[in-house]
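Slide 14.
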Amino acid sequence: VAATHKPLEQMVADGRFRQDLYYRISAFPIHLPPLRDRAADIPVLVYSFLQRGSTAAQRVSVEPAAMLRLQAYDWPGN
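Slide 15: predicted structure.
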């Protein structure tokens, strides 16, 4: 799995990225829109992260107002 924000096709054309490597990593592209375009995914992600970071004895939850603020955030750079 590889990810980049660089224009690899253009970089290959300009000779700034190896064509053979681009061929290998571009075999199965997956487009994932930025989080700012997927606000509905935020609750699922938040609860998943909280579940991974806690034990059964220490369940952590998020107040509805906090979840709304997370969903309203612009998430720049993502």
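Speaker note: Helices lie at 8-13, 19-25, 42-52, 64-72.
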